[in-house]
């Protein structure tokens, strides 16, 4: 199992790069993710999230999003012998066939659009292929999980965004979205959608986690859930180990199907990490654990990588 490919649906590392704190190439004294350890772990695909911090919202959100996008593109340029930008079905077909790490840029926060569809087309041209529709707050698209219960689903602008993202071949990310918005997206999107960094509510009651009903609906739509390594999402005690991550993977595979589950570490976005999964270099331990809990080799390969490649070939154009 040593050389199995790994795909990860969410890390927030580009913030440190944009701030000049780390080059994300060599391993630094702090931080969860860098190219050196990613290569050691055989990472083949990473969604790089440009997380727009709350203090920029709403009026500076577009500038901040573009600043982080520029940083992500600069990182890719500076490391072009080791990484490539994933934009098309053709790029997705290269995954696992080249020893370069594929990077797909996600904007975490639909606030980047304001209420302008042209911004969606613009960031698409600039290489963005995924948007987290909301963070925990409300925006012009819909409501995050941090809004009061009973806050509604998508706005009419939100429905326009879904339609345009379907047309362009962009990954719709529903992590952080409230439940009413989630069901609006599931009903309205013509393509599979992802919850890039979420866990199962049946195992841990956190508001960010997904009910079995939601997990099943994602699976039915050929979508994907990237299991988050956030200790608060993994266990009601707020302390977690690698075994809790395995527990969530097994549960989601049972409820939504083996083809609906993958990894969504949230490295560099979470304050603490589960014991045994301290950084991107530790992914191989998770692979080992999966083979101990009843999945066959083919299933493990799908959970670790294949599901993401299939999902991207369904969504990208
Ligand atoms: Zn997030």
TrEMBL record:
InterPro entries named in the record: Metal_Hydrolase, Pept_M19
Matching CDD domains: rDP_like (cd01301)
MF GO annotations: metallodipeptidase activity
Pfam families (UniProt xref): Peptidase_M19
GO BP, sorted A to Z: proteolysis
PANTHER family hit by this protein: DIPEPTIDASE, MICROSOMAL DIPEPTIDASE
Stated name of the protein: Membrane dipeptidase
Organism encoding this protein: Dehalobacter restrictus
């Amino acid at each position: 199992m040593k050389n199995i490919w790994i795909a990860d649906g969410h890390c927030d590392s580009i913030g440190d790069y944009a701030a000049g704190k780390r080059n994300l190439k060599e391993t630094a004294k702090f931080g969860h993710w860098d190219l050196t350890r990613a290569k050691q772990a055989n990472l083949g695909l990473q969604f790089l999230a440009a997380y727009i911090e709350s203090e920029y919202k709403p009026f500076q959100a577009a500038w901040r999003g573009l600043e982080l996008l520029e940083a992500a593109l600069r990182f890719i340029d500076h490391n072009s012998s080791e990484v490539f930008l994933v934009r098309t079905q053709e790029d997705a077909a290269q995954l696992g066939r080249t020893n370069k790490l594929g990077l797909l840029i996600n904007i975490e926060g639909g606030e980047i659009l304001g209420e302008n569809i042209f911004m969606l087309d613009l960031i698409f041209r600039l290489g963005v292929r995924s948007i987290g529709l909301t963070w925990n707050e409300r925006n012009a698209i819909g409501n995050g999980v941090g809004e009061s219960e009973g806050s509604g689903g998508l706005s009419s602008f939100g429905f326009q965004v879904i339609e345009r993202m379907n047309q362009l071949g962009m990954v719709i990310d529903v992590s952080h979205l409230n439940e009413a918005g989630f069901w609006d997206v599931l009903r309205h999107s013509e393509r599979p959608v992802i919850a890039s960094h979420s866990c199962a509510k049946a195992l841990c009651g956190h508001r960010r986690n997904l009910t079995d009903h939601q997990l099943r609906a994602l699976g039915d739509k050929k979508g994907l859930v990237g299991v988050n390594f956030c200790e608060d999402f993994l266990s009601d005690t707020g302390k977690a180990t690698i075994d809790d991550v395995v527990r969530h993977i097994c549960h989601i595979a049972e409820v939504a199907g083996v083809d609906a589950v993958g990894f969504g570490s949230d490295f560099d976005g979470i304050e603490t990490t589960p014991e045994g999964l301290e950084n991107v270099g530790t992914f191989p331990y998770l692979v080992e654990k999966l083979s101990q809990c009843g999945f066959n080799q083919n299933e493990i390969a799908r959970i670790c990588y294949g599901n993401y490649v299939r999902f991207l070939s369904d969504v990208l154009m």
